[in-house]
Amino acid sequence: MFKNLITESTAKSPWLFHINSGSCNGCDIELVAVLTPRYDAERFGFKLAGSPRHADIVVVSGPLTQQSLPRTLRAISQVPEPRCIVTIGSCPQSGNVFKGSYSVMAPLSKYVHVDVAIAGCTPKPEAIMDGLVQATEILKEKRKAWLEAKKNGLKDGPKAETEQEVPAAEDIPASGEEVQQ
Amino acid sequence: MAIVYSSLVYLGYILIFPGFLFCFVAGMLITGIDRKIVAKMQKRVGPPILQPMYDFFKLMGKETIIPAAANKTAFLAAPIVGLAAMVVIQLFIPVISTPILYGTADLIVILYLLLIPALAEIYGGSASGSPYAGVGLSREMVTIIACELPLVLIFLSVAKTVGNAMGTGLCFSLSDIAAYQAANGSLMLKASMIPAAIAMLLVIPGETGNHPFDAAEAETEICEGMLAEYSGAPLGIYKLTHAIKTFTLTALFVALFLGGIGTGIVLLDALIEFAICVVLTIIFISLVHAVTARLKIEQLFKYYWTAVSAIALISLVLAWFGM
Fold first, then answer.
1. B-chain residues near A45 (CB < 8 A)
2. Which residue of A16, B6, B233, B305 has the fewest C-beta atoms within 10 A of its own C-beta?
3. Contact, B221 vs B211, CB < 8 A?
4. B233-257 vs B106-128: helix axis angle to the nearest 10?
């Protein structure tokens, strides 16, 4: 009886957790612009959560510096299922102008499944809003897939599909040169 | 047969009206209206009024992560204890003038039951083993102590006023208070009770932990304090308890100061009570939320123990001299 209600609600109440992995602060202000009165993302139910455990959507900005990558991955793994990962800006997608630097580990998709990647340097608030709304649809699909898997006897849902091996901090190469793209 | 029937009736009281289901709908709607009104005051469109319901049902479907450092039993039991206490309070509060459960010292029972959700949150937070929860629970304890003194003074002044009229000294029974107001008009109309009513309205946002007084759950500062480690269903139950607390405290205000305006038909009374609660929430929670910034914990403590307590004390002194 409540299953459909919960599935519908999953798309209507996405809480965001924002990780800055060495961003220049450009994308971060644009995200704040999305949440504040001008663009008011709260009309779709978006809310900024303080703790990764409360979040549904993880928003990552920045080129993933060597220091921040293990912390980013650890924070992402603390978010309860069903969850979505959204990257803002070109940095987490390609490394942008920082590509080739010894301390830049982008792209994020090498380490974890990215659901929506919003390109741009920086993306417009409209683009961020569009990406976040797409992410809510993906959340709903993930919830449905999880219910389906539960029906078929998998207790914890289809985690293997969405989650790749997360490298431990010491496994990540110390130098960016070893990571050929 | 009679026992089965009466236990079914009590089960209905607890689960449907005025217990869980009624509290759930009323609390969620009040919180939704509060969020919408705050958004309007900040020139935003704001979330739909049903947003707290969506939040609650979404959290019910999420995975529950239990931290490795946590005490599992305490961590999971705390939210349920808090919710149960919150629902029980609602049974003691008369729907304007019709009490459901009553005794000789309802007000004292309510005073203790109001503490349980906050204590459960402290218990669950400390069981989670998070440093954010540690900071949050120490602040929550200070908030409880800060709000308790004015609340006790308010209850005493109401009890003394009604007790004087009944000739029993102090009257802590909410059904007697409701009967007194039905006979003599609302206590709000008595000059000596107006300061107590104002103090009660100032206590409500502090007791519910709403915006200027939310130092214990500052989400931008300490990740919602005691809730930092919670996820999924337990977090949803905490959110529900908060929503019900807003409704319970405004309903308590209606029972204490605005009794005697009911029609005698329980459903109609419940609607009137809900409408008054919404108005009180908009003026004394949403408006205060929109125009103030968060107070530091020592400012909060000072505010409640000086200004608000002094206002409540005026009423108590007036009541003690029989005015």
1. 47-48, 51, 54-55
2. B6
3. no
4. 160
Residues of B with Cβ-Cβ distance to A54 under 8 angstroms: 224, 227, 230-231, 235
Strand partners, A160: none
Residue A181, domain member (yes or no): no
Residue (of B311, B286, B114) closest to B212 by Cα position: B286
In a domain, A73, yes or no: yes
Report the pLDDT value the prediction gives residue A113, as an integer from 0 to 100: 86
Q: What is the mean pLDDT of residues A4-14?
A: 84
Can you read off the two tokens belonging to residue A102? 């010894």
Q: Say yes or no for a CB contact (<8 Å) between B47 and A9.
A: no
Q: Smallest CA–CA separation between A180 and chain B, in Å?
A: 36
**Pairing assessment for the beta strands A57-61 and A15-20 based on DSSP bridges:** parallel
Question: What is the tens place of the pLDDT at every residue in B291-305?
Answer: 888 888 888 899 999
Nearest CB to B46 within list A42, A51, A56:
A42
Boundaries of domain holding A9: 3-175
* Chain B residues lying within 8 Å of A80, measured CB to CB: 62-65, 231-232
Give the up-direction half-sphere exposure of residue A145: CA atoms within 13 A in the CB hemisphere.
Answer: 15
Q: Does A50 touch chain B (CB under 8 A)?
A: yes
CB-based contact, A153 to chain B, within 8 Å? no
Q: What is the ipTM of this complex?
A: 0.80
pLDDT band at A158 (very low <50, low <70, confident <90, very high): low
Interchain CB distance below 8 Å, A45 and B222 = no
| Residue B168 near residue B268, CB atoms below 8 Å | no
Widest CA span of chain A, in angstroms?
A: 54
Tokens of B31: 């919180």
Q: Which domain holds residue B89?
A: 2-320
Beta bridge partner(s), residue A86:
A59, A116
- Tell whether A87 is covered by a domain: yes
Main-chain dihedrals φ then ψ at residue A152, nearest 5 degrees:
-85, 5
| Length of chain B (residues) | 323
CB contact under 8 A, A40 and B54: no
Is the whole model's pTM more than 0.95, yes or no? no
CB-based contact A6 B54, cutoff 8 Å: no
Instruction: Tally the domains of chain A.
Output: 1
Q: Is the dihedral of CA B243, B246, B251, B252 positive or negative?
A: positive
Check B64 against A5: CB less than 8 A apart: no
What whole-number distance in Å separates Cα of residue A5 and Cα of residue A52? Answer: 24
pLDDT digit string (tens) for B211-232?
888 877 777 778 777 888 888 8
Q: Which residues of B touch A10 (CB under 8 A)?
A: 58, 61
Question: Min CA distance, A41 vs chain B (Å)?
Answer: 8
Report the number of distinct structural domains present in chain B: 1
pLDDT at A167: 52
Of A12, A53, A143, the CB nearest to B65: A53
